[in-house]
Fold this protein.
Amino acid sequence: MRIAVYPGSFDPVTLGHGDIIERTAKMFDKVIIGVLNNKAKSPLFSVEERVNMLREVTAGLPNVEVQSFEGLLIDFLRKNSARVIVRGLRAITDFEYELQMAQTNRVIAPEIDTIFLTTNLRYSYLSSSIVKEIAEYHGDISEFLHPMIAEKVREKLACRQQ
Ligand code: ADP
């Protein structure tokens, strides 16, 4: 069985992530979305909320599952018998960091490969942080997020601003 892991923070999942997930699901028998529980960052959504949102938006994709993880990504892959890491490349600015990560992971886990999907041009400028910034100032985020996720972002910010 060919299993791939698509890791990230997904705070929150955007249509750009969704595009990568759909394309990856067509290429592998199983795709595990790994939601990073990074204690050093202070995300807008808790890791449980991010996992649940991803489960809702991928409900129509039977070979996609969502899990949270902590620690080294390669340990998460090994635990799940996965051999491939999938990352999205938006612009040249992503490249340097991604190359460094991929090369490092390859040294510590030679059996694991990283593949990159170039993003859909439509979403090539999109990031979770930009969406949060727009939402913070009450801008329209409906072009960038699944309607249900956009609603959750608005609710969350409204709670925080009270
Ligand atoms: P991280 O915190 O690891 O950067 P993100 O949640 O921001 O995690 O992104 C996870 C993965 O999705 C990364 O490979 C990133 O390049 C990719 N990605 C982020 N935004 C987009 C987008 N708009 N289109 C396609 N891929 C994206």
